Amino acid sequence: MAKRFSDGEIIAALLDTGSMRAASERLGCSRDTIKRRLGNPTFAAELEAARQELTHGLSDVLNRSSERAVSTLMKIMTTSDDERLRISAADKLLTHAAAFGKLSKAVRDDW
Asked: Which of 94, 93, 77 is nearest to 85 (CA)?
């Protein structure tokens, strides 16, 4: 008798691997098994909720890390005795600030 996988097991495999093929290989089931489960609206909603939760958690980690990275660059820019390090830190801050500005504008434009 074929093993029946729980929704949680399939969701975890999909989130961990990023594809149906890799998830099915990890679980030892066919892609058709996962496709059938994805056709279930309740399962699809659970998967989307899990994706959202994962995305929000990663976003929080990246935001905290970004704040520390900016603080580190600012400290180097203002306190280093090495002019090359100060210039490099300033350049990186400006480069990332410009990229962030473009991203922020794109997000605002999509609203």
From this structure: 77
pLDDT bracket for residue 1 (50, 70, 90): low
**Residue type for position 74:** M
The DSSP string of 72-85 is: HHHHHHHH-S-HHH
Full-prediction pTM beyond 0.70? no
Sign of CA dihedral 26, 30, 35, 41: negative
Find out whether 90 and 70 touch, Cβ atoms under 8 Å: no
Tell me the C-alpha distance between 85 and 56, whole Å.
34
Contact 89, 76 (CB under 8 A): yes
Q: What is the DSSP string of 8-50?
A: HHHHHHHHHHSSHHHHHHHHT--HHHHHHHHTSHHHHHHHHHH
